[in-house]
Every structure is written in C-alpha cells, then in structure tokens.
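note to self — DONT lose this again. spent like an hour looking for the file last time. sequence + predicted structure for the chain T wanted, 298 res
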Amino acid sequence: MLDTASLYYRSFYALPASMTAPDGRPHQALRGFLTMLDAFHTTFAPRSIIACWDDDWRPQWRVDLLPSYKTHRVLETTDSGEYVEDEPDALSAQIDALAQLLDASSVARLGWPEFEADDVAATLAAHVPGPVIVISGDRDLVQVVNDANHVQLFLAVNGGMPKWPLLNETAVVERYGVHPRVYVDFAILRGDPSDGIPGVPGIGEKTAAALIQAHTNLDGIIAAAGNDPVKPLTPRIAALLREHTEALRLAQQVATAVTTIPIDIASVMQPQETHVEAIGAIASQWGVERFIPQWLSA
C-alpha cells in the first residue's frame, strides 16, 4: 500500500520542473510517481495495491489536541473552517490528474473523512492479512511495522528505489535504536518540525532512544523523571520532561496513527475496474503515456 502524498511530494521536489506536459505544464510529480509505482510492482509483485489518500490532511481533532499541528503548511482557513494547504499550483494540478488516473486504473484509491493517509494505511496494515508492504517517504509510518502481522515499511529515502531500506522490526531497531511499537514515543520526544510537533528542548534522536532503552516507553520515562534522576535522566532532562509532560501526552495522541477506521477490507481488496480510454486521455493530456505501466490499465 502507498502513502500517496509523501510519494508525489517526493517526486515533485526531487525531479526537475523542466519535465513538462505537451501544454508546457510541469509533470514531474506524475512522471516520478508512475515510475516508482511500476518499479514497486516489478520488485514485489503485490497481489493488490492500495493508494492511501489524504481526504483530510489536517484533521480538526488533531488540531484540537495540538494547535501547532502542521501550522506551517496552512495557506488559509476558509469561512467554513476548512484548512487550505500551502502547495504549489503546479503540484495541485498534478495531484488532481493522479487522482483521476488512479480512479480509472486497477489501483484502488482510498481516503476517509476526518483522517489522513497515515491512518488509512495503519488501519489496513492492522487488518489486511499479511504480508503487507507500506511504501512511504514519511518516517511516521515506522510505527506500523509488525513482524507478527508480516507488515514491513519500504522507506523512500536516500536516492532511488534500489537504495530504499525495507524495514522489519529488527531493521527498525538497528536504524533508530527503538522498537516500532514505541517509535511514536521516540518521535515526540525528539520532535518533528515537519508536522509541528515541538518535542522536548535539548532531546535529540540519540537521547530519545537512550531514554526509551532505559525506561521502556513514554510512561516509564515520565515516571522516572519524577524520581531521583539516573542516567541518562540528568536533573536537567528530568526537569524538562516534567515541564513538558502534558504536551508529550497530547503529542502522543496526535502522532499515533489510527487503526480503527471502519474500512470494508474485503471490498477494498477486490480487483478494481479499469477504464482504458480514460487512462489514455489523461496520460496523453499530461504527456506521460510511456510512463503508464501496462499492468495498470490491464
């Protein structure tokens, strides 16, 4: 399954805007996404592919818990209270075209009101019979890795797909120093500026990992901070943790992907009807005909 937004954003900013459609509009996000999609299909031969979609990229319930959540990505708030994301016009048009392509193809596109693509992916990962591979450029989804359910994360970082790590539980521990089940605690301790999660001042990745290794999880760390500090809980770090306890509790709720969306799993896993003429028309308009995989419109 695909964390779609993270992948088209990655293509948009990684590839040059000189890649253009016949009418001169940039098409690098479309082109990069389709190339990645075909490579993923060739590499893993999945029985089905689901494109998880951001129906709500900044859910109000998360903002209510943490007002700073994704604040830097808000362009404006409408009269009805909806948030308009600050994204380039050149990307917005390509996102619309990608949605049309996926809806006409054999790949299911799935979003859910009041939830983000991360929540959709996490719910599917928790309930679809494995093996499951989630592909994302967002480390937040490390939390879904689960050996018992055969869920792995293909992390889109560091160059092209051949360099992307495929993470199981052991690989997550080797890479970050913590188990996937406490990755959220690790992330909120160090903070995540890209999501507006502040973290605790002075605690970076190494200290966050050391704290979890010593005290198991956020609950254990907060409990330890109330006692005589012991390594790696110096008096200064213990005081900071006590000061930020409430903020950490709220951030933990915000950063934890929802796994209980009432998705009809059996329906989503059914083969999707393809509309070859629609795919051809969109591909021609955007000049990406040769990047449409044959299997996508079969």
